[in-house]
Amino acid sequence: MPTMAMNLEAREALSTLILAITKTGDLYLDPDQVKQVKSICKKSDVNVRTAYDLLMIQLKRKHAQIRYSSTQLIAELFQRSHVFRELLVADYPIFLQLTVGIHQHPLPPPVVFADKTKKLAISLTNEWHAKYGPVYKQIALGYEFLRYHLKVDFTNLVPVTDEARSAEHKAQEELSRRIRQRKYEKAAVEIEEMSEDIQDNVRKMESCFDILVPKLDDESALNAIFGAPAGSNIDKEQDIQDEDDENKDNRMELDDGDIVDQEAAWRQYDPMGVHDNALGTNRYKLTINVNKDNPVDVQESEDNAEIFTTLRECYRLIVKKHWPKVTEWMDVLMRADHEPGEQRAEYDRLLKKAIDLKKSVADAKGKSEDLGVNMETMYGPYEQDSDEDDEELEEVEVMVTNNTKNNNARNKGKQPVRNQQKPETKKSKNSVFSMHGQDILEDDPTYAGGTHVTPVRAIARPDTGRSRDLGSTTAPEGEETREELLARAPLVPWDDDLAVWDKKDMTFNTSGLEYSHRFLGVGDGSNLVSQDTLDRMKMRTRIYNPELPKEIKACRFPMSNGRLCMRRDLVRCPYHGLIVPRDELGQIQLAPGEGGFVRPGEEVLDDEQEAALIARAIAAAAAPSSSSSLSASSRGPDSGKAKSKDTSTWEDIEDDVHLALGLEKIEVPRKRGQGVKKKKPVKPPSALVNLSKPVDSSRARLLRRVASKASKDSVTQDEAIEKSSSSRDARLNRWQ
Amino acid sequence: MNSGRTRRIAHNKCTRLLYQVELGIVRPSALQSHYLSKRLLDLTLDPSTTIQREHVSAVNTIDIEEAEGRYLLSGGGDGNIYIYDLEESQREERRVIKCMAGAEKTISGHKGGISRVNWYPFDNGMFTSSSFDSTIKVWDTNAMEVACTFDLENKVYSHAISSKATHGLIATASSDPRIRLCDLKTGAFTHSLPGHRGTVLSVEWSPRHEYLLASGSTDTTVRLWDIRKSSSCLCSLDMHNTNSPPLSEANVAHTRTVNGLAFTPDGLHLVSTGHDDKMRLWNLYTGQNTLTNYGTMIRNQFVYSLVPVMSPMSAGSPTYVFYPSNDRSILMYDLMDGSLVKRLTGSFGRITALAWRPRTQEIYSAGNDHDILAWGPKNVDRDNALQAMADLDTWSDSD
């Protein structure tokens, strides 16, 4: 029976897999598990049948998340297996019943997944109908049923099966390809049409440049600039250096050689005629500093205003029209599909043309920017944008540029004061004289912060203008400077006493009006705060924050059962006396400088010392910021967390004490199964919504309140009281 | 490969049968019955035939005329009646059968939903229809006009014309316990058969005896009538086969309402169905329940006249009965041994009526989803690309 066994095995595997897949409750199926299911189903049609049965069982569960996952898996298998298709098609009405909710079978909660399942099933029906409709009548009927009876709109559905998705993808590719083709054709026409214009424009600019800036390779132009005879070496410094070295070598040679060819040699090595120009030597270093910000120093003047105007016009044209156009062409051409043959050659030609155009336009643009014609200055001093028709816009633009210019100018002159001060303020606030707990306060949006700090800062920061003034007026000459004093001064957190710390006397009620106390009457006349009060004002409250012991040591007294006492107390263990350091076996370790052993239970410290110790410990425990670790560890024996071999439990200590007192051991009846806890089978994490849990709706909450026994009782009680009181009233009213 | 082999075997059997028929060893009818049962077992939803939807409400009843087996008559809950030509575009790959004539709600037509339509058995120039508006109308097919109207003053659930008799009487089943017979010749009521105590839901004429009538009612009884006799009720069928007198009050055919009756084509047996989800086969010779067990798949809960349909009887092949179950499926039973042969699923609406087309061994079903569906033998020889595509497994290599 090997085949049977195989079937059983496959069935087992399938059932676990399908259960696992459908019970995760996730939006997407685990691809590995789906693959496993498919590989099992691929082996035989019997397995497909099994999978179908299992899936239908899952699909009938009253949980939308399970149904959603099952539907997804069904879609996967439907696409693959013919047998699966036959099976599902036979049960198609039931499938739609369970997934769309036809025939008055509403889908189970959760609602979100019910909607998702419905949408998925409708999309699947749509796609299956398109593909299998003519073959499987049931699918066509289902499609018709949804369309006719449920008025389902099958247009604009998101494709769900891989095939439909790839078809859509292909259609989109085709569309974008066609768009690219159209753009390419348009660009080709444009290039042909506009290249002439662009070239004209560039040529015009070039001629402007020629007029404004002499060409460097033109010798006569150079002469015009330097006003010197031809032959000046204006090569770059490095070149000159090189040449110098060369000349030097040559000279060395010449010293040894004949003099006949000297003249010829001079001519040879001095082609520029340094000597002819009455330069004593050719070792002069000529350094040309090129101003990076303004490489071409051409100023606009009355003479060349016309040229600049032309240049600006051309520049505008380039910036606004040609440059975007050229970049767009490049973009389109780079994206266009390369087709072989004649079109390819055409494409290459166009691309070359576009690249050339782009290069020339970029060149011209760069050159004109070097000349100071750029985006900001492309409208001359009195020019206005003639291209723009909207006058309002124009105005605004000019204004904005002016504003920015002004701003820039101001910024260059001096930095705005506010900006510089800001970080300082912040810093002073944090470092010196910070209020107690200011860190927390600063998170509070209602905290004003600055008011307290300002006067303090005035003293603390000598570099702000005001404090300097103060310093210069208050500090007398010859004594220690304020800086030195500040260096010595202690840093104390802010408190009220700082306001009066240096006052010898203090007046109050400086208004001149007399106030008389209603009991004590008029004062003695001196509006001075008494010395006593002033002293008290100079006091400050300080909260003592004692250092808490990081770790409370265990008692570690050896008990009768061989374990060590694990009580953790600060000073002394109630059972074993003062806590002293002990080794692993519980033997007392000798403290350095102490003579003998300290026996357990013996009083080492006198009472006073111990009292002080305990008082300190209590203070520490009562401190508001006492750590939770302390409270946890001080509970020590009760918590009974650590149950390792060495450490004892509360019961151990109890037994030990009882033994010492000669009492019997207390047997605690253990709860059954307490010792050996049953391990629950570990459930895989699942996102399934628990439907059996009652919904926490407002109605349910109200019902819990209203329908509770206590409230019902109170109602009946009230009714009884009312009844009795009404009957009593009735009796009262009866006079006879 | 498997299907190919069976096809070959079947093919071999056919040729053998043909050979034997040629030699005279077997009767020609054996070949016919062999083919008939083969085609019946292959019955499935016909993917290539679509009947255009005309009704805007549930289709309550359909009937195919016996003279040519060509025209399908349908009556709906909307009160409309339509006629389809089933041979339309017969040769095409994908048939769409359109309505050829229709009688929509008019002044002369029905005011309420149609409960039953019947062709006149001998001629397709006439048909009758009963409606919940308490009338029975006789129609002229060619003019699609009402020729005669019988007003029964009660909801009419069903009516029947004998396919054998020359008497031309229409038996009616209405919410009136009396069964009234309408005479087509005079246009008047001739008989009133008292006996039932509740609404009569179904009446059928015997195909064997021209004066034998069977009726089923909400009083759970099935009664047989001889319309010639003055005390016309012959007997009330008893499902327990007790020896009580034939007209005893204790005789009941079902434990709940009886809503369907059908004679076997030879007229020797009667099938009855009831709301107790049972189907019973009665031997009309003895008047006893044959106690055939049709299982528990039957669902029947609506008050309407349900008519099981039977395949023709032929020696050598079993007769099948088709039962429109309320769970949107058609159950196909072996009539005599009661075994469920096939369950035809795929309809999206509750199937309200069935019609058998003898010439092509097709079944037509009317549903309350406004649709009429065709169920035909699966065409195994059909060889088109679509079918091949659908038959293909498309496992990817990575699976």
Structure notes:
The complex is a heterodimer of chains A (736) and B (399). Chain A has 736 residues and is mainly alpha-helical. Chain A has 27 helices and two strands. In chain A, strand 1 and strand 2 (577-578) form a beta hairpin. Chain A is extended and about 125 Å long. Chain B has two domains: 12-45, no CATH class; 46-389, Methylamine Dehydrogenase, Chain H (7 Propeller), CATH 2.130.10.10. In chain B, a hairpin with a 4-residue loop joins strand 29 and strand 30.
CATH class of the largest domain in chain B: Mainly Beta
Count of separate DSSP helical elements of chain B = 3
Largest interface by Cβ-Cβ < 8 Å: A-B, 31 and 27 residues
Query: CATH homologous superfamily of the largest domain in chain B, by name?
Result: YVTN repeat-like/Quinoprotein amine dehydrogenase
The share of residues in helices of chain B is 10-25%
CATH topology of the domain at 8-160 in chain A: Serine Threonine Protein Phosphatase 5, Tetratricopeptide repeat
Q: Which structural class best describes the helix and strand composition of chain B?
A: mainly beta
Distance between the termini of chain A: 103 Å
Shape of chain B: globular
Largest beta-sheet details of chain A: 2 strands, antiparallel
- Contiguous low-pLDDT stretches of chain A (5 residues minimum) are 228-244, 248-257, 384-434, 449-475, 594-604, 624-644
Strand order of the largest sheet of chain B: 1-30-29-28
Provide the residue-averaged pLDDT of chain B.
Answer: 87
Q: Give the strand tally of chain A.
A: 2
How many domains make up the coordinates of chain B?
Answer: 2
Rounded Rg of chain B: 22 Å
Mean pLDDT of chain A: 72
